[in-house]
Amino acid sequence: MAIKIGTEQFTERVDNGIHDDFMRGAVASAQDGMSMKRKAATTEDLGNWEEWRNHGEEIRQHVLKYLDYYLEQLSENVAKLGGHVFFAQTKEEANEYIRSVVQKKKAKKIVKSKSMMTEEISLNPMLEEEGCEVVETDLGEYILQLDEHDPPSHIVAPALHKNREQVRLVFEKKLGYTKSSNPEELAYQARVTLRKKFLAADIGITGCNFAVAETGSFCLVTNEGNADLVTALPKTQITVMGMERLVPTFEEMEVLVSMLTRNAVGQKLTSYITVLTGPKEELDVDGPEEFHLVIVDNGRSNILGGEFQSVLQCIRCAACINVCPVYRHIGGHSYGSIYPGPIGAVLTPLLGGYDEYKELPYASTLCGACTEVCPVKIPLHNLLHKHREVIVEKEGKAPVSEKLLMKAFGLGAASPTLYKIGSKIVPAAMSPFISGDKISKGPGLLKAWTEIRDFPAPNKERLRDWFKNREKGEKS
Amino acid sequence: MKVTIFATCMVDMFQGNVGKAAVELLERLGCEIEFPESQVCCGQPAYNSGYVKESKEAMKRMIETFSDAEYVVSPSGSCAFMFNEYPHIFAGDPVWEIKAQTLAEKTYELTQFIVEVLKIEDVGASFEGNVTYHTSCHMTRLLGVKEPPMILLQNVKGLKFTELPGKEQCCGFGGTFAVKMAQISEQMVDEKVRHVEETGVDYLVGADAACLMNIGGRMERLGKPVKVLHIAEVLNSH
Ligand code: SF4
């Protein structure tokens, strides 16, 4: 499974995350910094951010509604420009197509800009199998690649879980780096090494932030300019995109790009917005001679038209991850998926199945912080709830003890008589566990609660009895 | 004005003080209180865990129970929000959707009711103490009630207020999350406790009994001296 990372079970992964102090420090300070920047960037000079969100949602919903039409328009326009378009239903098909291009070009050296889609289809292992040297040129991805293919823990800042000292160590070990952990010095080292790779590359592979159907163009948003080089220097370019990542025209692209950069990194614009339209033309000084577009479905058609469709509105800004209190404490790797956080907890079970990922929808307090920040208004916490409903009612994957308990709950809560009797006997039933006015070691469900916290002892007199018994207006 | 109290099962069984304070407060503000005996649980624990079928029966019961009420007022933002969810849950149901809608429209969280319906911003309370306030997620984000508790607390005589750092962050309760994902919940509530401690206050106040039970229970376990009060208890002090 290509979206899967690690081999441990969910609780083990969470346990590892919780005990990784480095990671937690890095994540907490990144989250705090990001939240502040995002707030500033979405309130300054933009006018009404809520109106922007409505507009963003509208654009994405429109595209999903007419996806067939826009995909066709995009393909036609890319072909008109002399590009090749391949529609891959599965990740295997995508990989096979890319393999054939690599073989035809007898390519040995490949540079890549950041792409979650290529992670999703496990492209790198296939390329390496073909004997290619594959180099990730996004700084974060590059660090992870050097560090024995450590998986990404965040969709925008893949190496978020590492602090500078850890990065310095990786560089020291793998590149013979001798300088400090100063980010500028580290970045300089990466630039020097990567520059040579860019110049020698046979093929450049990119992801795609947005494709513009009307013109057959692609937009890549980066802060490092690496996507510029990946697309300008190698003779052949392959762009891999999720089938939903497109907009009708440049007008909508502009709206979504400014929302993306503000929400993702708190910048009005990132340092580079690279837009490419087809292969190199006669008068162009650089750009690829050959251009391939691989549009990947990999399960997305199954989501379209169903109750989870809105998840396809996502523009991968990671704002939901940056505010998620659960992600804050367990980090990205705990999700066991290349897509972590709220978006990951919604998307991963859809792409990777409930068998593997049934815990993820429960790894949320449904606090709604994600939904509140999502620039395209995906009701993330509602979708997490929807997953729970499917797991319980359609998939039947809930534990039996829980099912029985909830059945009993259904009966008890729905029947005033049962509730009355039940709630009346609560104090007596719990009395063995009560010390003073609290319960410190409870039975059943209370056990997990009281391992961490005290639980209040039940009222001696239920509120309803107090109300009935007292004389109106008289303070008890 | 006639007000029907939706006490919530937690308050009914475990946090009577909160319910009593809410009843007394509303009476002091001139309301006539009713407490229908047939009220049970709003269904949230089962619903949020994905047991929609099971919880619908409880929801129907609640809709019936409060059908004659003029105003339904709850000392829990989260449970009041649950009533607001009913119309979505019963969407398309020829009988229950409309009834659910009627209930949602007349349901208020306590402070919201005082400020928006009674139009009272100063309840005449006095409370000597250093206080911080936990903004519960469901109440602020989902129900959208942010200002009313702040307005009411500002007007309490003697009360000194300190804002809680990281106030927008969830306390880690999340209903069954607290037991299902106890490991994660613990980390979340611990960070909340640290933030409460940073303020140096004597009292942590909130408008959602469940969140308070979570944070309070953890502080008690850790032996922290901060006392936990529901906002109804503060507003009922005079
Ligand atoms: S779900 Fe929304 S907030 Fe999260 S990454 Fe996607 S667009 Fe951004």
TrEMBL record, chain A:
Alphabetically ordered keywords of this record: 4Fe-4S, Electron transport, Iron, Iron-sulfur, Metal-binding, Repeat, Transport
Residue sites binding [4Fe-4S] cluster 1 per the record: 314, 317, 320, 374
Domain of life of the organism encoding this protein: Bacteria
Domain 4Fe-4S ferredoxin-type: 311-378
GO biological process per UniProt: lactate metabolic process
PROSITE patterns (UniProt xref): 4FE4S_FER_1 (PS00198)
Coiled coil: none
Residues reported to bind [4Fe-4S] cluster 2: 324, 367, 370
Record-annotated LUD domain positions: 71-296
Described function: Is involved in L-lactate degradation and allows cells to grow with lactate as the sole carbon source. Has probably a role as an electron transporter during oxidation of L-lactate.
Family named by the database record: Belongs to the LutB/YkgF family.
Protein name (database record): Lactate utilization protein B
The organism of origin for this protein: Neobacillus rhizophilus
Source species taxonomy: Bacteria, Bacillati, Bacillota, Bacilli, Bacillales
TrEMBL record, chain B:
Originating gene: lutA
Entry coiled-coil feature ranges: none
Lineage, highest ranks first: Bacteria, Bacillati, Bacillota, Bacilli, Bacillales
A single cellular component GO annotation: cytosol
Pfam families associated with the record: CCG
Family annotation (HAMAP family): LutA
Function noted in UniProt: Is involved in L-lactate degradation and allows cells to grow with lactate as the sole carbon source.
Domain Cysteine-rich: 3-83, 131-215
Name of protein: Lactate utilization protein A
GO terms for biological process, alphabetical: lactate metabolic process
GO molecular function: oxidoreductase activity
InterPro entries: Cys_rich_dom, LutA
Family: Belongs to the LutA/YkgE family.
